[in-house]
Structures are given as C-alpha cells and as structure tokens.
Amino acid sequence: MKRLAINLIVTLLAGAYLDAGVPAIAQTGKVELLWLGQSAFRITTPTGKVILIDPYLTNNPTTPPQYKNLDAIGKLDLILVSHAHYDHFEDAVPLAKKNDVPMYGPAGLNQALLTLGVLPLRLVPRFNKGGSIYPFAGIKVTATHAEHSSELAWRDPAKNNGQALIGMLPSDKDETLPGGEPIGFVLTLENGFKIYHAGDTGLFGDMKLIGEYYKPDLVMLPIGGNFTMDPVDAAYATREMLKPKYAIPMHYGANPLGKGTPQEYIDALGDTPVKVFPIKPGDKLEF
C-alpha cells in the first residue's frame, strides 16, 4: 500500500460496516479525524456531528498553537473523557461550559464534578464500562475497560477565586480525589465505521474481546510507555487481539517519559496487515 500523505482520503463502503444496534442514517459520507496531540481527537461524523475526545490543548506542548485557543475547535456536539488525569481532561470543563454540551466520562468522575459543583447535571451525564449511549441518530458510544488509574486533581475554590480545577489559577491548597475508573470508547458512526479509542491503558487480555466483539475498523492506541503501553505492547494488541484495518498511534511525545515513537510501533508490527497512520498533531484524515 502507498505510504500516507497528509490529509489522505480513504474511501470505505459503508454497507460493509452496519451495526444492527445502530440505525443507518448515512450510507455514504466521510469521517474526518483531526489529531490535536496526546490523546485528543476531534471527530466529525458523516452527518456533521462533532465529537471531541480527551481535550488537553491549552497546555499541551504538542498541540498546534492555533488550537490552544479553544475557539478554534469550532462547533462541538459531544465531549468524551477517558479519565481524570489533566492530559486528558484539562480543557473538558471549559469546553463543556463554552459550548453547552455534555461531557461523558467515567461515572465516578462525573459524579465528583457534580458533587463539587463544577458542572451541572445536564453537562455531566453518567455511564460506565459496558454501557452504551446513543447521543445522536445513528451514533453509538460504548465505554470499555482500560487498565490505568484516574485521580482528579482539585484546588480549593475558596482559595482560588471560584476556579477549582488545576491549571486555571494558582492556589496554595491541592487535593487529590477519586476520579472514577478509566475507560476507553468504541464509537459506531452513522455509516457503521467503528473506532476504538483506548484512552490510557496497559495491555490487557480483554482487548481480544474488544477485537472479536466490536470489530473496530480503526484503533487509536497509546504507545508512549511508562504510563501506558509502549510500542511493542501496542503492536501486540494490534496484531494478536484487535486486528483492525487501520491504526493511529497516540499518547507519546507530550511528556519526556512518553518515549515511544510511531516508527517503533511500525517496526514491532512487522508484516501485520494493518495500515498505520503516523500522523502529526494538526493533521487530518478522512475515512
């Protein structure tokens, strides 16, 4: 297969990917992915719904400068957060407020945000591992297991002028609170195209179940190591368990400890029949 060029368009026959649990709205149309660095992706679905996953933008050293202004993200319809760590969650609250859209995350994280008064109930609906939501006609989002942790870093609003989340304003009192259990996401879109965003995770045996049961077309896997899978682990998950058509390596380079590289992932895959997209933050793909 030809090597990836930036903004490569991959045309898929939608009928081959229909999911019996999701009504088919768009039999044609494209899925647009914009990678914003670390694990942050903006997904535009075939009918124009915009889903943002793990928004860590303003303080992300790998996010292109133009996207550090949250206005540049544009219209949003849904925010998904895999866990409470700042490099997945930092901009979720301001974006949810700014766009008046719900932020779905681990049930424990959303409950904490509600209890602390960070967001109102309508913006922190809850679901949990194995649960599915149908936020728009033809779109299904399922929460999956992830092998990680999820601590919520919190600063006392009484000493922070009402701004409670770390990174907004300085404070002299920090707390670490439970942030629910980490999750990944399987998204089934209107044309049946399936995306598995693994969130932060180590290698775990039920990735085989995710591959066999959900049959993702595209997987987004962390490769940085130290906090998550490294390139060899991610290659094993891809080759032996998930067996997708396409893969995007993510969660590397934003932290000195995230040393894994896309080339190491590609080398570890060997002749595995998967198309890898070693894109850079700010690049877009269409499927």
Description:
- The protein is 17% helix and 24% strand.
- It has helices at residues 86-89, 92-99, 107-115, 207-214, 231-242, 262-269; strands spanning 32-35, 41-44, 50-53, 78-80, 103-106, 126-127, 132-136, 139-145, 151-155, 174-178, 183-188, 194-197, 218-222, 246-250, 275-276, 284-286.
- The strands form three sheets. It has a seven-stranded mixed sheet with strand order 6-5-4-3-2-1-16. A seven-stranded mixed sheet has the order 7-8-11-12-13-14-15.
- Helix 4 (207-214) crosses helix 5 and helix 5 (231-242) packs across helix 6.
- The chain is globular and about 55 Å long.
Quick gist of this model?
This protein is an alpha/beta fold. The protein has one domain: Ribonuclease Z/Hydroxyacylglutathione hydrolase-like (Metallo-beta-lactamase, Chain A, 4-Layer Sandwich), CATH 3.60.15.10. Strand 12, helix 4 and strand 13 form a beta-alpha-beta unit.
Order of helices and strands: EEEEHHEHEEEEEEEHEHEHEE
What is the rounded Rg? 18 Å
Instruction: Tally the beta strands.
Output: 16
Helical amount: 10-25%
> How are the strands of the largest sheet arranged?
6-5-4-3-2-1-16
Sum up the overall morphology in one term: globular
CATH architecture: 4-Layer Sandwich
The structure class reads alpha/beta
The CATH topology name reads: Metallo-beta-lactamase, Chain A
Mean pLDDT: 88
The CATH homologous superfamily corresponds to: Ribonuclease Z/Hydroxyacylglutathione hydrolase-like
* Main beta-sheet strand count, sense and barrel state: 7 strands, mixed
Number of helices: 6
